[in-house]
């Protein structure tokens, strides 16, 4: 049985101009110990799919699915109370913008405390020691001294490490990383990716990596789902996808990589679309 299995997921948003279909019947599965990459350009529905899974979309969203199960637990029928027991503990998510995700009014130590208080039986000094242990594990310098730091007093890379520490605090079985290296410089990007893969390999959890960066896919993923305009274009193991892509959109993404340049100008996805490729 898969760790997470979603079948025929559809998401629509109510807008002033009428319903907008963000996802059109996509399927996802991920197993324990597996890294699944979901790749596609902005607006392809990658984040929407995961937010729907987490139950974090606004009331304006209509979510339907033939199946949405985590370890056999039907996520479609969970009460809000029961969902809170799962989300943040067994399923965690690292969001795109660490600065925006952390509350600027509270120290990072306080925000870590809240996570552990909610989902574990730890108290007092036990929580403090656990937070320091987590900060050290994700490579935050002077972990004890950082407990009283506010998000604005930390760099973007350090804030992202705080978000990772928060996400793994309760040893989740599934971790969703939504563009975890957005707005970070190249050196820090590599450090964050290496850290995520290391944590995944050591814990044996499932990892879903949402990205538009094919280089990240090549370095981290076991299996890849390619999305375009709310639909799944292709699914394959990472080696097959790069060596023998089947869908024209996947070919367009790979052809747009600088290392694949064959002329004075890189082809764009729009070039393939205009040519009737998809």
TrEMBL record:
Pfam families: ABC_tran, oligo_HPY
Annotated membrane topology: Peripheral membrane protein
Domain spans labelled ABC transporter: 6-254
Top-level taxonomic group: Bacteria
Record localization: Cell inner membrane
CDD domains xref list: ABC_NikE_OppD_transporters
Principal subcellular localization: membrane
Entry annotated with the keyword Transport: yes
Membrane-traversing stretches: none
Family: Belongs to the ABC transporter superfamily.
Protein name: ABC transporter ATP-binding protein
